[in-house]
Design brief:
There is one protein chain. With 140 residues, this protein is an alpha+beta fold. 47% of the residues lie in helices and 19% in strands. It contains six helices and three strands; from the N terminus they run βββαααααα. The protein has a three-stranded antiparallel β-sheet with strand order 1-2-3, covered by helices on one side. A hairpin with a 5-residue loop joins strand 2 and strand 3. Helix 2 packs across helix 5 and helix 5 crosses helix 6. The mean pLDDT is 94. Bound molecules: zinc ion (ZN). Zinc ion binds next to loops.
């Protein structure tokens, strides 16, 4: 999406992708998150397509994770890579379903409190991780 899309509102202008900063509030904490949207060079309307809305939602989910004390998607990914396992292997070891880690890491969903603790435990104790991995036949 490099701004070549025709504006669906006026049908004459073209949309240019913009990055803005959106002030959001969650549980009394305020933060500026990145906001994706497009502006029409003809009618000047601001709009967001499905992909932009998805990215905006992910930024909000990541902020909520921080406020709630959960690992963010980037942190989950860093730990998984540190453990040397794929997303599919992580799902086998920790549970959550085959696409769970793709969703956690993209900030599409927030992992449960139990899952969050399990991931943190494995990050701080290789022994704990190996016990879980052995249970599903995964050898390090
Ligand atoms: Zn327009």
């Amino acid at each position: 999406m490099q701004g070549k899309d025709l504006c669906p509102l006026c049908g004459e202008g073209h949309l240019a992708h913009q990055l803005g900063s959106l002030l959001v509030d969650y549980k009394g904490q305020t933060a500026a998150i990145v906001s994706h949207f497009s502006v029409c060079d003809h009618c000047g309307s601001e709009q967001a397509d499905a992909a932009q809305l998805r990215d905006n939602k992910r930024a909000m989910v990541a902020f909520k994770k921080q406020v709630d004390g959960f690992l963010t998607g980037a942190e989950v990914k860093a730990i998984r890579e540190q453990l040397g396992i794929t997303q599919a292997q992580a799902a086998r070891v920790f549970g959550g379903g085959p696409v769970a880690f793709a969703k956690y890491e993209a900030d599409d969903v927030t992992q449960s409190e139990a899952m969050d603790k399990l991931i943190r435990l494995s990050a701080s104790s290789v022994d704990a991780f190996h016990i879980l991995a052995e249970q599903v036949g995964l050898t390090a």
